[in-house]
Amino acid sequence: MPETPRQDSRTAPTDEELRRLDTHWRAANYLAAGQIYLLANPLLTEPLRPEHIKPRLLGHWGTSPGLNLVHTHLNRVIKKRGLDALCVWGPGHGGPSVLANSWLEGSYTEKYPDATRDAPGMELLMRQFSFPGGVPSHVAPEVPGSIHEGGELGYSLAHAYGAALDNPGLLVACVIGDGEAETGPLAGSWHANKFLDPVHDGAVLPILHLNGYKIANPTVLSRIPEAELDALLRGYGHEPIHVSGDDPATVHRAMAHALDTALDRIAEAQRAAREEGVAERPHWPVIVLRTPKGWTGPAEVDGEPVEGTWRSHQVPLSGVRDNPEHLRQLEAWLRSYRPEELFDAQGRPVADVLDCVPEGTRRLGATPYANGGLLVRDLPVPSLDDFAVPVDKPGTTTHEPTRVLGDLLARVMRDTADRRDFRLVGPDETASNRLQAVFEASGKTWQAGTLPVDEHLDRHGRVMEVLSEHLCQGWLEGYLLTGRHGLFSCYEAFVHIVDSMVNQHIKWLRTSRRLPWRAPIASLNYLLTSHVWRQDHNGFSHQDPGFVDHILNKSPEVVRVYLPPDANTLLSVADHALRSRDYVNVIVAGKQPCFDWLSMDEARVHCARGAGSWEWAGTEDGSREPDVVLACAGDVPTQEVLAAAHLLRRYLPDLAVRVVNVVDLARLLPREEHPHGMGDFEYDGLFTTDKPVIFAYHGYPWLIHRLAYRRAGHQHLHVRGYKESGTTTTPFDMVVRNDLDRYRLVMDVIDRVPGLAVRATAVRQRMADARTRHHAWIREHGTDLPEVAEWSWNA
Q1: Distance CA 174, CA 763 (A)
Q2: Model confidence at 539, in pLDDT bands (50, 70, 90)?
Q3: Longest dimension (CA), the chain
Q4: What are the C-alpha distances in Å from 617 to residues 381, 389, 549, 595?
Q5: Ranges for the Xylulose 5-phosphate/Fructose 6-phosphate phosphoketolase N-terminal domain (predicted)?
Q6: pLDDT one-digit tens code per residue, 303-344
Q7: Residues in CB range of 654: below 8 A, 6 or more apart
Q8: Contact criterion met (CB below 8 Å) for 171 and 5
Q9: Torsion angle, CA of 264/367/131/114, rounded to 10 degrees?
Q10: What is the pTM of this model?
Q11: Rounded to an integer, what distance in angstroms lies between the CA atom of residue 180 and that of residue 92?
Q12: How far is CA 64 from CA 33, 37, 101, 217, 492, in A?
């Protein structure tokens, strides 16, 4: 049974303890403001002059005092209670505050030894902020203790819950800005408490920071009556604790009381669940913190109110280098923190400033939970031979690829039952996507009410289903960033909902790879199924294969895209993805019955190669170059290409046809553009430089042209794919509608092989007639032509 954090209801902090907390807070405020403005003179040992000021003033002051308050008080309770804690900073543009606190506690210097905890190090800290060659203004990967940048708002609370899953001893505080609270993903994230297991998971403490304004407008939650806000949060299943004010002494006392109250409630809820077996879902605490935007900064600038308004959002004094009055105000502002009381003559923080700071890895900037690669263990992926489907001859048997993968995932789930470091997430589609075998190993986590008709719900389950792709993505990102493994299964058309989220994660990984102190984490793995070609009952609304296009625009050292054509290749690709680190792997695979083309051994070799010729499918004899290359990527395009090759064998037996299958889409890129790309010699050898290439592709055809536009044979490349012609119809009619069908591919060969159009007129006409028969047949019978429905490679 996980250890339960202890309660600590001793007396409130004394006046002296509160004074020392205020000292820390003032030091953090001073450093935060200094990072926005100062190039030199960090301790104000001489009057400020324009040359001490940065030429470009960048950063966000408005949220920083509130974040500093939270950081200061979290330090106190972590140290007092001996907690392991992590904080997710939703207002990630408050980078100055988190940098300031990590410098004060020493974790920043440990990662960046040049930023010493003295005057030269302070000057470096200030100079590098939002400065060329320095660090970004947000809580970026460069900031110790961070797992969440917050440059794009909406994801903090989902990340926090993902971090808490299967970390029973961890407290995850999450500061939510009131602007962020207006986003859809954040609004959905309040429901995550219905999935938090008080036995096996840690606790999430949301801190809703209401400072009243966004960039230029008031925020909704700060302007509605407090009773209405209170009712909203209680309706979400939380017990609110309110902290309000602008007097520092009053707010310090109230914040200390609020944190003690919240942590006592958390400890009691966990103790009741873990020691007494209480199954009732807890109503977890949430702190509502109301402080002025830009608190302790300039009250007024140029006759306009600033503190407590939107004008303090970024840089309250913008003309400091040119306006003597602004320079005077800045110096008065910085000196109001009394830096001579906070730092000694060498610029080192004094003892009172550091009194609340925890030690070692309990410091928020030093917690290993924010550097998940330090904690991650290899996933026990079983031997693929245990799950492989037998393939004596290609194209004669069928399996549902994702169902085969589901058996492997069930084994992984069983083999991680004790260590609890693997989760499967998805928006209500695990069974729909044929992965239901996992329910034999783990149920679906659920803390809300249950009915007798419900299936597979389990308070301690590790399969997570919620009809919010945002929440699924956020959970999994938080889970991976804190050192665990997982897979996101989703309908292909609707994974676009998280386009922007995955973009941010890719940026995070790309930056982290350049930081030697950030250890590699498990990859973010997508399984996209229920794909464009088999939406037999859902139709056009469920047809969009464009996520792959979005992903391949991103950092090539991070992104990988795989289109396995059958069950065994899916196993091989999944094995690679689940073992990999620091990637975003996108796997597109069907859930409907699909022909088995390759044995397990053949699949391993083919997937390792990424793209290759299937000699058994073509008609090359090795004595001459092929007349045409039929290429394919994706399960349905592969079937249509092989059916077209079959027709060419029958009707044009003298034609030399090469069949190429592409599993790893990045192989089409030049080697200098992507680590998986092919060199020109290899590409030219596979696709030729002067022969027609008819490429049947799973998605939008122009992507293939974009990937291969620099290749010598690009002018001979003709791509067929999805072109937004969708509806509810038969499987084969979908490919006919988009000109991806076998008959059209044969016609393309005839049209593009020099001299063939004249010699093969009758064959081309036969193919066109087959398409005409198809249209008539499906409208009369509602099913595909028998020669299509009953086709197999050896038929």
Answers
A1: 67
A2: confident
A3: 98
A4: 32, 20, 29, 14
A5: 14-374
A6: 999 999 999 999 999 999 999 999 999 999 999 999 999 999
A7: none
A8: yes
A9: 130
A10: 0.96
A11: 10
A12: 9, 14, 11, 18, 40
Query: DSSP string covering 242-308, please?
Result: EEE-S-HHHHHHHHHHHHHHHHHHHHHHHHHHHHS---SPP-EEEEEEE--TTTTS-SEETTEE-TT
Q: Which of 585, 588, 574, 528 shows the shortest CA–CA distance to 382?
A: 574
Pairing of strands 300-301, 304-305: antiparallel
Amino acid 786 reads: P
Give, as one character, the DSSP assignment of residue 321.
T
CA distances from 762 to 88, 138, 734 (A): 68, 66, 26
For 640-679, write each residue's pLDDT tens digit: 999 999 999 999 999 999 999 999 999 999 999 999 999 9
Q: Retrieve residue 754's tokens.
A: 């020099």
Lookup: tokens for 222: 């700060």
What are the residues whose beta carbons fall under 8 Å from the beta carbon of 586, sequence distance 6 or more? 526, 528, 547, 548, 551, 559, 560, 561, 562
Nearest residue to 411 via CA among 388, 389, 442, 434: 442
Structure tokens at 260: 């003690």
Q: Which of 313, 349, 421, 333 is nearest to 93 (CA)?
A: 313
CA distance linking residue 7 with residue 22, whole number of Å: 24
